[in-house]
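User: If only I could read backbone structure tokens as easily as an amino acid sequence. Underneath my words sits a plain record pairing an amino acid chain with its backbone structure tokens. This is the protein in question:
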Amino acid sequence: MTPQSATDIAIRVRRAGPLALLQDRGRFGVRHLGVTQGGPADLYSWAWANHLAGNPWGSASLEVTFGGLQLVAERDLEIAIAGADLGATLEGKPVPLWQRVHWPEGQTLAFGTPASGLRAYLSVHGGFAAPPAMGSVACVAREQLGGFDGYGRKLADDDQLRIFTPTTPTTQGLTEAPGHARPDFREPPQLDLLPGAQIAEFTGRSLFDAFNAWWRVDDRADRMGVRLTGPRLQCQIRSLISEGINLGGVQVPPDGQPIVLLNDRQTIGGYPRLGSLSPLAASRLAQCLPGQEVRLVARSSEAVLREYRAFLAGFNA
């Protein structure tokens, strides 16, 4: 990231809504301590919001889940919102998504309810400023780490938010995402899955069902993981010695209903795993509302790695 210095208060929280969290790229190199990574549940939309706001990779953004957030600008700001359509408005007028927008001082930016997708990402030119905890400002409430206060607290009414003074003018860089880069979160996604070490322990029927049935997103879903409901998968292994769990890991507990683990997951687990979603597939799943259907698609690690590297290169990551 480029050198920056903190400014005075830039945004005031008028209404916090159900869940708004500060998220940078995430917290890495600490899982051996039992600390999870945090970071944006939808890495793809987070990356685009920062890119369009003119911020370098890794800058902190607000992850707004379900909407209901109202913010007042304490100074003129340049922002970008990417991800879910949560009915964002400026002084009651719709805010265009996936592009840079001017937010005048004194005006209220409000998020309504989900029209498509679940999580929107608000990036401000310069990036949000907060004290890092273990090398990151990513907010993980369970571990009381990160966020604007450093202790993992979600936004609350009357909070005051700081941003960094940007070192590049707002006229630089891409200001609007091309149409092909904007996901349609209403469409049932097909999620890339890399088969895991225990996949051979599942029955043939279970493997057929895993990749040929539509799975439904259960209402038991949060930043720790998403439960999928559908055919019952059977595995000859009932449990394992606990081992490290990566982002997108697809655990199958005894009830046969997969759980896809996301950013705030526990660091170890003992259920057999069907495999792992790719990082971009995990991002797409994080935008699915309860009841939405998804499909699992087996992919090779070479193909997934090639696509992920191309994604990172597009943001100079």
The mean pLDDT is 94. The chain has four helices and 21 strands. The two ends are 10 Å apart (CA to CA). The CA atoms of residues 137 and 303 lie 32 Å apart.
